[in-house]
Automatic annotation (TrEMBL):
Protein name, as recorded: Peptidase S1 domain-containing protein
One GO MF term attached to the UniProt entry: serine-type endopeptidase activity
InterPro entries xrefs: Peptidase_S1, Peptidase_S1_PA, Peptidase_S1_PA_chymotrypsin, Trypsin_dom
Coiled-coil residue windows: none
Gene3D superfamilies: Trypsin-like serine proteases
Gene Ontology biological process: proteolysis
Species per Swiss-Prot/TrEMBL record: Photinus pyralis (Common eastern firefly)
Length: 251
């Protein structure tokens, strides 16, 4: 059964406020400061529900479904904390920008820029990640980082940032009825063995390669059941992102 972005968000927002969202299935725990660009979108009860990435002092990036929910519910951005219960620096959401072509039913072009109400202050644990300047071809080794479920359908909780090594797949490996909107020139895809992959809490998070942002988690089919996960391809969105965030083209 297709687990939509909306269903995952509803489950996350409605979860018991005393629990932290879970981690990447089959992932490893990130050391403090290992991924200083990773951000947590949290509700009024300090509950993580989606992941994001800092791309400049004025912008973070996530998927559109996460961002719209965050803005509508007056959620906040937390940066600088691999262990969420340890705190971090809090920023309020000022505005979001999504593509005019975003489709909330099919999740086509599911990407958005979130602008805090004030500039993000950088330090050793809070840094932006640069946008990729090249196409990400199949068989590229990549890393995903985020806060998501450790087991499925169990709800083993962790408040520590997780990461997992993945490989970009050929289009034919993701071109099926289980992946709405794929193939698409603006999407990337990863597929793993059962028990490994993304789940609730991971949506909107960064896919990286060689210290560059190459993807943003868009949709996933169930949770680590051996099915493909898809990402918005940052290279194809790079000009649009830069136009929204005033990021120099030399970066």
């Amino acid at each position: 059964m297709w687990v939509t972005v909306l269903a995952l968000l509803v489950a996350s927002v409605g979860a018991e406020s005393g629990h932290w969202n879970e981690k990447v299935l089959g992932g490893a725990t990130a050391s403090d400061g290992k991924f200083p660009f990773t951000a947590s979108l949290q509700d009024a009860n300090n509950k993580h529900y989606c992941t994001a990435a800092i791309i400049s002092k004025k912008c973070i990036i996530s998927n559109a479904a996460c961002s719209i929910t965050a803005q509508a519910n007056n959620f906040r951005i937390v940066v600088g904390a691999s262990k969420l219960s340890a705190g971090g620096t809090v920023y309020q959401i000022g505005s979001i920008v999504k593509p005019a072509t975003y489709n909330e039913t099919s999740f086509l072009h599911n990407i958005a820029v979130i602008k805090p109400t004030k500039d993000i202050v950088f330090n050793d644990k809070i840094k932006p990640i640069r946008l990729t300047n090249k196409i990400t071809p199949p068989r590229t080794s990549v890393t995903y980082t985020g806060w998501g479920m450790t087991k499925y359908p169990d709800t083993t909780m962790s408040d520590t940032l997780q990461y997992i090594s993945l490989v970009i797949q050929e289009g034919k490996d993701c071109d099926s009825g289980t992946v709405p909107g794929y193939p698409n020139e603006r999407k990337l895809c990863t597929a793993t063995a059962p028990g490994v992959g993304l789940c609730k809490g991971d949506l909107g998070g960064p896919l990286i390669e060689a210290n560059s942002l190459v993807g943003v988690s868009s949709t996933l089919y169930e949770c680590a059941q051996g099915n493909p996960d898809t990402y918005e391809d940052i290279f194809s969105w790079r000009d649009w992102i830069r136009s929204q965030c005033d990021i120099p083209f030399c970066i």
